[in-house]
Amino acid sequence: MLNHIFIDESTWGGLCNTGRRQSPVDILTRGEEVQTIRSFSLNLTNFKTPESKPTIKNNGHSGFQIDLDRTPRYVTLTSSVDSNSAKYKLQQLHFHWNSKLHTGSEHFINGASSDMEAHFVTYNTKYPSFAVAANQPDGLLVIGVLYRIHAIPLTKLRAMTLVGNMTRNVISKDSTYTSSEPLYLTGLLPDLSRYSLSKPFNPSLLHDIIAHGMSFQSLNSPDFAVLPGSLTTPPCSENVIWVVFLDPLPITLQQKLPFLDVRTEYNNKEVPMENNRAPQPLYDRTITLAKSYYFYLD
Ligand SMILES: [Zn+2]
């Protein structure tokens, strides 16, 4: 009996089947695939500005999202060994989930899945639009944040409650809902402000570390992984730089429940949507871990 439908990957063609840098993957933080880098900078610009009237739309499993392109928000990512100076603009936010406990994230961390995963989808501003960038080899960067259900969460992600409440209004496919409550994106991210610098920081300059009075030992901040990958829905384009935070954020069961009511269409029937793709082979990719890094958040 088919209770839940989600991803019928047998119908996916092209790169989804033949690609060698497909996402998601199981991110192992030990082993030969991992190359640790100690100096990394992730700059999130204008992320503290809330989305004043967030609109969520349900266009089926690849189109359940909140568009965020009205307010310009930018991401840059630099490391001491890779001078990627690309500037990425935030386009949209969406979520992945599954009805079973502690499954639903797309990325696994050391063999373990989590309950949900948010994707902040950005595109390279050297291209005029998301639609153009989506077809370029250096077009996209996606930030992944995992969430795990805790019986007694350490912190309450109020923004997740808001997204859940919005989700209740777009249960049916091809529906849209606009909230009058502002959505704070920082409420869906790790508490980066605790580790933020007051101005953008060039990690390749050691004297900046001294100027900021910081030592590597003092930076006990959440780690993230950086790796090349793909879209996790067709056409599975292999033009995504992934930034995935390794520590899942705590949510409650109540916060996940609204997503389990979301419907999509399968064989002309409305069925519950589950939309997490299984981990794909890593092949010859290297996962870079940012063990010590710097944030700039405004
Ligand atoms: Zn996604």
List the helices and strands and how they pair.
Elements: H1 15-18, E1 26-27, E2 34-37, E3 40-45, E4 55-58, E5 64-67, E6 74-79, E7 87-97, E8 108-109, E9 116-124, H2 130-133, E10 140-149, H3 158-167, E11 175-178, E12 196-197, H4 206-211, E13 224-229, E14 240-245, E15 249-251, H5 253-260, E16 263-266, E17 269-272, E18 287-290, E19 293-297
Parallel strand pairs: 1-8, 2-18, 3-19, 10-14, 10-15, 12-19
Antiparallel strand pairs: 3-6, 4-5, 4-11, 5-7, 6-7, 7-9, 9-10, 13-14, 13-18, 16-17
The chain binds zinc ion.
Q: What does this protein look like?
A:
- The chain has 298 residues and is mainly beta.
- It has a single domain, classed as Carbonic Anhydrase II.
- The chain contains 5 helices and 19 strands.
- It has helices at residues 15-18, 130-133, 158-167, 206-211, 253-260, and strands spanning 26-27, 34-37, 40-45, 55-58, 64-67, 74-79, 87-97, 108-109, 116-124, 140-149, 175-178, 196-197, 224-229, 240-245, 249-251, 263-266, 269-272, 287-290, 293-297.
- It has a 15-stranded mixed β-sheet that branches. Strands 1-8 form a two-stranded parallel sheet. It has a two-stranded antiparallel ribbon with strand order 16-17.
- Strand 4 (55-58) and strand 5 (64-67) form a beta hairpin.
- Helix 3 runs parallel beside helix 5.
- The longest helix is centred in the middle third of the chain and has 10 residues, at 158-167.
- Mean pLDDT is 85; it is low at 1-5 and 213-219.
- It binds zinc ion.
- Residues 94, 96, 119, 232 line the site of zinc ion.
